[in-house]
Specification:
- It comes from Gluconobacter vitians.
- Strands 7-6-5-8-9-11-10 form a seven-stranded mixed beta sheet, sandwiched between helices. It has a two-stranded antiparallel sheet with strand order 1-2. Strands 3-4 form a two-stranded antiparallel ribbon.
- By secondary structure, it is an alpha/beta fold.
- A hairpin with a 5-residue loop joins strand 10 and strand 11.
- Helix 1 packs across helix 2 and helix 2 packs across helix 4.
- 40% of the residues lie in helices and 21% in strands.
- The longest helix is centred in the N-terminal third of the chain and has 15 residues.
Length: 281
C-alpha cells in the first residue's frame, strides 16, 4: 500500500502546476472519493490500497485535464442536499443558494402549500431545495434537455422529494397551462462573446446552451419576463438568478411586463444574484 501523505503531496503538486486553485484541498477530495471516506475519515487512513490508488490516479488524470470535480465524482452538494451531477446540466453552485434565501425572505411561512415552477431546472437543485424548506409545497421543473429532466427526476428520488415534484422536458413554459405561487429560474445569462473566456472547467465541460444568454446576456430574461404574468398567481413571486451588473436591466424588463421589483439578494461574494419580481395581477 502507498502512503496517503505521499499520494496527496504528489497530487497537490501536479494540480498546482496545472493551475488549479486550492490544490491541496482538491487532492484530498479526490482521495476521499477514491477511498469512500469523508474528510474526517481521511485523517485516520494509513495506507491506500492498490485498487483505491488506481481509482485515485484515474480521477487525478481527469482533473488535470480540468474536468470539474463534480463530474468526476458524479455528485455535489447544494443547500442541504446531495445531488447527482452530469454533463447534461450545469453544476449547482453556492451562488444560486441566494435564490432560496430570497424565497425564504418573501415567503416566511414554511407551512404554506406553495405551488412552485422551476424553469431551466438542470439538476433540479432550486426546486428540490425549495421543497425541502416547505413541506406542504409541490412543484414542477422544466428543462429543454430530456436528459437533464431525467437527472432531476433521479435527484428527486435521491432526496425523497419525488412525491411532491415532477420534471418535464420542454422549452421554458410552452407546455404549461397553470399558474404558480413561485417561479424560480437560473437562466443562461453569459454574453456570447464572453463564453470563450470562462474557466476551462466551464467552457470544455458544461453545456453551452445553459450558459449562452445571447449578445447582451439578456435573451432568456426577455422570454421569461413576457411569460411570467401568465405563469404567476396574483401577487405571486418570480425569483431569477442573474450575472454581475444585470439586475437593473432585468428589473426594467420586468416592469415593461407588469412585474414589480420587490427585493434583491446578494450571494456570499456580495454580488446581486437574486432578483424578486412580483405580479400585481
Amino acid at each position: 500500500m502507498m502512503a496517503k501523505d505521499d499520494l496527496l503531496r504528489e497530487a497537490s503538486q501536479a494540480l498546482e502546476q496545472a493551475g488549479i486553485d486550492d490544490a491541496r484541498r482538491e487532492a484530498r477530495l479526490l482521495l476521499c472519493w477514491a477511498t469512500g471516506r469523508d474528510l474526517g475519515g481521511l485523517l485516520s487512513l494509513d495506507g491506500v490500497k492498490p485498487a483505491q490508488e488506481s481509482r485515485f490516479a484515474e480521477a487525478l488524470k481527469r482533473r488535470l485535464k480540468r474536468e470539474p470535480l463534480a463530474f468526476i465524482t458524479g455528485e455535489t452538494g447544494f443547500w442541504t442536499l446531495d445531488l447527482e451531477t452530469g454533463r447534461d446540466t450545469l453544476i449547482p453552485r453556492a451562488d444560486s443558494e441566494a435564490l432560496i434565501e430570497a424565497l425564504l425572505d418573501v415567503c416566511p411561512d414554511r407551512s404554506a402549500p406553495l405551488s412552485i415552477l422551476d424553469l431551466g431546472t438542470g439538476t433540479g437543485c432550486l426546486l428540490l431545495a425549495a421543497l425541502s424548506e416547505y413541506p406542504q409545497a409541490r412543484g414542477i421543473g422544466v428543462d429543454l434537455s430530456p436528459q437533464a429532466a431525467a437527472l432531476a427526476r433521479r435527484n428527486s428520488i435521491r432526496t425523497g422529494l419525488e412525491k411532491r415534484s415532477a420534471f418535464l422536458a420542454g422549452s421554458w413554459a410552452d407546455a404549461l397551462n397553470a399558474r404558480f405561487d413561485v417561479v424560480l429560474s437560473n437562466p443562461p445569462y453569459i454574453e456570447t462573446g464572453d463564453l470563450a473566456g470562462l474557466m476551462p472547467e466551464v467552457v470544455q465541460y458544461e453545456p453551452a446552451r445553459a450558459l449562452d444568454g445571447g449578445t447582451d446576456g439578456l435573451e432568456a430574461y426577455r422570454i421569461l419576463c413576457r411569460a411570467l404574468p401568465d405563469l404567476l398567481v396574483p401577487r405571486g413571486h418570480a425569483i431569477l438568478e442573474m450575472g454581475i451588473g444585470q439586475i437593473d436591466a432585468v428589473s426594467t424588463l420586468g416592469a415593461e411586463n407588469g412585474l414589480r421589483k420587490v427585493a434583491r439578494r446578494a450571494d456570499l461574494g456580495g454580488v446581486d444574484r437574486a432578483l424578486v419580481l412580483q405580479s400585481d395581477g
